[in-house]
Amino acid sequence: MSAAGIIGVGITDFGRFPDLPEEALAQYAIVEALSDAGIAAHDVQAFYCGNAIGASLPGQRTLRELHTTGCAVYNIDNACSSGATAMNAALTALKAGQYETVVVFGMDQLSSLGGGPLPLGRNDWNNKRGMIMPALYAMRAMRYVHEHDLSLDTLADIAVKNRRHGLLNPIATFCKATTREEVLASRPVAEPLTLLQCCPAVVDGAAAVVLSTRPGKGVAAPVRILASVVQSGLFETGHEDMTEAEITARTARLAYEQAGIGPQDLSLIECHDAFTISELLYYEALGLCARGEAAALLASGSTTLGGRIPVNPSGGLIAKGHPPGATGVAQIVEVCEHLQGRAGRRQVENARIGLTQVTGGGIWGVDHAACSIHILSL
Amino acid sequence: MKLKRRAGAHFRRTDAGMVLIATRTARHPQLQFPPLEFVHDDEPVEEVAIGPLGTLYTFTIVHPGRNSEPYALAMVDFTPNVRAFGRLLLDAGHAPRIGGTVRVVPFDMADGTADYAFAAVPGIQ
């Protein structure tokens, strides 16, 4: 049995589609992925669905009209890390020899929520007292800016960079060019974060990949998975450093070890830039630079398209939006397209190894509840 | 099955001011706030008062939108090695300051339930 590879990818536009339920979006992504792999739905032995916001049985709701074989459907909710966690679970089953060909997909439809931050559990200690996701990241940003004596320009420059990337991405239908001044002048959401420093709240989308231990029949070269790691947040009640993305650093260490590479070997990264501060913290947690040097790394242009290690060439969550169930799979689709040389105008030159990182949070007592990292190569 | 909800509030009023109640057990000696909510196997739970003064680790001011007033949130560090999250009461004309001293004060939640918040202590840095 050979190791599982990604033999097909599919993705929808990311935008506001209030008339398209999440099932329809996911169906589109799955059909695209199957077509890309050169196989049919009846060739698939199991489906893994990542979904965070929708009602129960999202996978089955999606698949019934695709006339699948009645094979196993696994529904996985790990907040914003749902899709990537589904990928990890699918790879585990393939490695165990349980299946030969599976589909991993993720989707969410946020238009129906009417805007505002992602809904969190109402009974959570922090959430009952007014916590929302932008506020959690804002508190990290406030402390990071304080400790490193940073200008808020640095935060704004992440939004400018990623929206510049997003303009090159045809699926980022919500993306508009912006300037540092416009970012800082947009309305405050949770100080110091302004509206344009937050990923758009009302965006729908889906993505899918076909994984198989058999040779692909598609036109694009199969993509190897060098590492797939999921970790959960540690229970923290003391004076922890909120500017250290501990769970991401821990997951990255395990992923680099599994892949047998280091951050210096990466060609591109898709990371969880739900807010501008996130990307800065993840530069450090992923080992792209030392603690406190993220602003300098950004300013050097290294993480911009054309730089040494482009981060979020897709535009990231800030440019595309963040339907949480879809995000982790969408990141994997993006990296595959770069490795296969079919990323269009945003293509990273000579892309050889790419990393995706996504977190999921929203409960008291943990830095983030979940983190998933995948490292991919041809 | 020996599983019960721990009795007791998460704050207390003392002569020195309002304090929060953290807990720890022999199996998990690190203090935690909010306090342990459920007790397994009748395990003894030690309650430790933290406050009334703490240090502002970080904060934010949330702007919910046109129809709602901004509100502030904070992470506050207490001795010994406990961090608590809660509302931060804004003092008109004075921006919160990381590293500044805050006091635990009474505060009612939106549904009227008695709770706690933090307020800056003027003159103590």
Structure in words:
The complex is a heterodimer of chains A (378) and B (125). In chain A, α3 (82-95) crosses α12 and α6 (152-166) packs across α9. With 378 residues, chain A is an alpha/beta fold. Chain A contains twelve helices and eleven strands. The mean pLDDT of chain A is 95. Chain A is globular and about 55 Å long. Chain B is mainly β. Chain B folds into two domains: 3-50, no CATH class; 53-120, OB fold (Dihydrolipoamide Acetyltransferase, E2P) (Beta Barrel). Chain B has no helices and ten strands. Chain A binds chain B through residues 116, 125-126, 128-132, 134-135, 138-140, 142-143, 146, 187-193, 235, 237-240, 242, 364-365, and chain B through 30-34, 57-63, 65, 71, 73-75, 77, 81-83, 85-87, 98, 109, 115.
Quick recap:
Chain A has 378 residues and is an alpha/beta fold.
Q: Which key phrases capture this entry?
A:
heterodimer; A: 378 residues; alpha/beta; Peroxisomal Thiolase, Chain A, domain 1; 2 domains; two-stranded antiparallel ribbon; 34% helix; B: 125 residues; mainly beta; OB fold (Dihydrolipoamide Acetyltransferase, E2P); five-stranded mixed barrel; three-stranded antiparallel beta sheet; 0% helix; globular
Q: Which fold name fills CATH's third level, the topology of the largest domain in chain A?
A: Peroxisomal Thiolase, Chain A, domain 1
Radius of gyration of chain A over alpha carbons?
A: 19 Å
What structural class do helix, strand and pairing data of chain B support? mainly beta
The CATH architecture of the largest domain in chain B would be: Beta Barrel
| Unreliable sequence segments of chain A | none
> How far apart lie the N and C ends of chain A?
18 Å
Number of strands of chain B: 10
What is the general shape of chain A? Answer: globular
Q: How many domain regions of chain B?
A: 2
Strand residues, percent of chain A: 15-25%
